[in-house]
Write a structure and sequence with these properties.
alpha/beta, Rossmann fold, Alpha-Beta Plaits, 2 domains, five-stranded antiparallel sheet, three-stranded parallel sheet, 22% strand, Trk system potassium uptake protein TrkA, RCK_N
Length: 214
């Protein structure tokens, strides 16, 4: 299921929906236990597995695999054949989306594309707030409510250093999504050096972001 699928499952469960998750990874299954109604280790692209779990009784099926395109397609087909009323499928490209549509998926979603559009719009808006939070909520982006995307002026301790030296992911558990100075640099690499006057777009858990900005 990955982070995307697990987040959807948890958010739906928190809103009192009956949710069953299926993943071939026992580790991912264990991580979801207790958070949703039921979680099972199994191959979601295998019709026999889905049939044994009586998925046809569910109103909606959400297919969230990203890299396993064949499994994604097979799962979509099986859910429709087993009687799931509405199937929402994740696509990784326009071609993939077109195939899913032809196979009967009721709705196609492109989560990475949606997040990319949101981030670019955030910069285009020309926000001047010193610290502005853009919460990733279940309604807006399907991210968990305890994570945020924030715009901050570069902290003093980061000036003159690069990402490799700072090790922000290791020390703070946050990720720099983009840097704005005279221009916008998305997905900065390890050698990106920060200068006084830079504005950063940073993603992470709220508690970790607070530590970064203290």
């Amino acid at each position: 299921m990955g982070n995307f699928g697990a987040t959807i499952a948890r958010n739906l469960a928190q809103h009192d929906f009956e949710v069953m998750g299926i993943d071939i990874s026992q580790k991912k299954v264990d991580n979801l236990k207790g958070d949703i109604t039921k979680v099972v280790a199994g191959d979601a692209s295998d019709k026999n597995v889905l049939k044994s779990l009586e998925v046809g009784h569910f109103d909606v099926g959400i297919v969230t695999m990203r890299d396993e395109v064949l499994a994604n397609i097979l799962c979509t087909i099986q859910l429709k054949e087993l009687g799931v009323s509405e199937v929402i499928a994740r696509a990784s490209s326009d071609v993939h989306g077109k195939i899913l549509e032809e196979l009967g998926a009721d709705k196609i979603v492109f989560p990475e594309r949606g997040i990319g559009q949101m981030i670019s719009q955030f910069f285009v808006s020309g926000s001047t707030d010193i610290l502005e939070y853009v919460n990733f909520t279940a309604e807006s982006s399907l991210m968990t409510s305890d994570h945020s995307l924030i715009e901050i002026p570069v902290p003093d301790f980061m000036v003159g250093k690069n990402l490799k030296e700072l090790k922000l992911r290791t020390r703070y558990g946050v990720t720099v999504i983009a840097v704005r100075n005279d221009e916008i640099q998305y997905d900065p690499d390890a050698n990106t050096k920060f200068n006084d006057g830079d504005t950063l777009l940073v993603f992470g858990k709220n508690e970790n972001l607070n530590k970064l900005t203290e």
